[in-house]
Write a structure and sequence with these properties.
24% of the residues lie in helices and 15% in strands. The chain is of the alpha+beta class. The strands form four sheets. An eight-stranded mixed beta sheet has the order 7-6-8-9-13-14-5-15. A hairpin with an 8-residue loop joins strand 13 and strand 14. Helix 7 packs across helix 10 and helix 8 packs across helix 13. 35% of the residues are buried.
Amino acid sequence: MRAGAERHASGDGVDESVFPGVPESETADDAAVRVPETGSTASRSRADATQARDDAVRTDASGDACSPDTCTCGEQTGAEAGAETPPVATDGAGVTNVDDQGSLGELEFTEPAEDVSQDVYDDAPDTRVGVPDGVDLDTPTYSIRSEMNDIETPDEKTWFMELDEAVIDEGRCIQCGTCVAACPSDSIGVGEDDLPELVKMCTGCSLCWDFCPRGGMRYERQWKITGGEDNVKGAGDPITEFSARVEDDWTDAAQDGGVVTGILATLLEEGEIDGALIATESDEEAWKAESFLATTQEELIENAGTVYNQTLALGNLDLGQWEHKLPDKDWDDLSLALVGTPCEIEGIRALQDFEWDYQAQNEGIRAVEYTIALMCTKNFNYYSLMGEQLEDQRGVSPEEIGKMDVLHGKLMVYDHDGEMIVEEDIENFHDAALKGCDECADFTGFCADVTVGSVGSSDEYSSVIVRTEQGVNAWELTEPKLDYHDLEDKSAVGKLQGWDKKKAFESLDRPFDPDAPRFIDYTDHAENYGTALNPHDQGH
């Protein structure tokens, strides 16, 4: 018998199963009631089934039938028949699209406001809410983690927070982007202030610390690993040195002799590279440098010249952002050139020395086959130099500037007609310089294939130092297009390199030791610089 079926006795005492909810007939006339046949295997139409269901309900002489609200067959008691249907339970908040019978109505959604905070409170986001009157509760800092777990952060595990504490928050970041490139979980991005920031959970792998030229990487050791013992002395041990310029009309907009653009254009033309990561001027802010992958000679010429702020170049080696410009080939087969400051070249060389997977940046790091360093004593914070120093204090807006140069210890600014509008000692702009640049002793880019600058050559010529066999190849390919001769003043380069080292030795709070291990433990750095050990546990 089916579960839930009622049993009734027939006249001969034999039990029969009937369908639940079907009232008994009060007449002997079987024609008054039609019961659907259940034993038949023949298929029936939907109409037959509906007729069978409808006819199974008794109809009295007046033609009235049972309904969900009334009973005419007498099977329900009077109390049951007159009782109201209980309301359907809701969530207590009065669901607006459900009535008391449980019927679902139309849903209406309110679109969230754009560019408006969804915070319903007007106070700080970390303010405790719902605190009873008279109760003073402090919002716990990150140190609650160690208190709850009763553990301390192991000294050998270094987090981005340590890098932030010792380098970024201390104003020592040189905006090279090495930490962004090194992160194997792509957890580090670039903030609106052009400084590295954590964009998702840090895994504590230590690589951002290890490869930072102002943190865990002993950059003077990298010189020695890349170029040998002689790279630690004087201006290094170049293979050859020249004063050179490109003989072409487009060099009017270039810096000095246009040699960097000439070398890159030749490498592209000869099929040695598929693109070059260079600097371009921002579309939104005049004279602000941004990373740009040039893949044509026209793009290189259009972006010839020098801008005096960092682009975090190594943080822009994710080939995905340049995919629309790259040739249709496997990324493992791509070849790129990188133009950067000496610290950026130190970073890429160190990253390439290890076979670790740098995730999104990995193919870009491996693709760099040519490096060109720009001679550099210091770089500037864009907003401090262009905004505070030039516009606010000297009345020169970025839009007025046609060219800038740092030469013979002076910052020179020209308008679009070539007329000089500012010429001052570079020391007058010291407050706009990146603080971490003071610790750098690498004026000539010891780790690069080729170094290019203006010191040591006359106007309209560039000083060129070739350091590696790869650099020799780039030079020999470009040589036919150049007007060049021996470097005019080697002593000028050596003197400025010596001055740069002296300044670094005075600024470094750690020993300068090319023979020490390449990576500096955070605990050792903290001891020298006085920064916090395990800032996690101190509520950083």
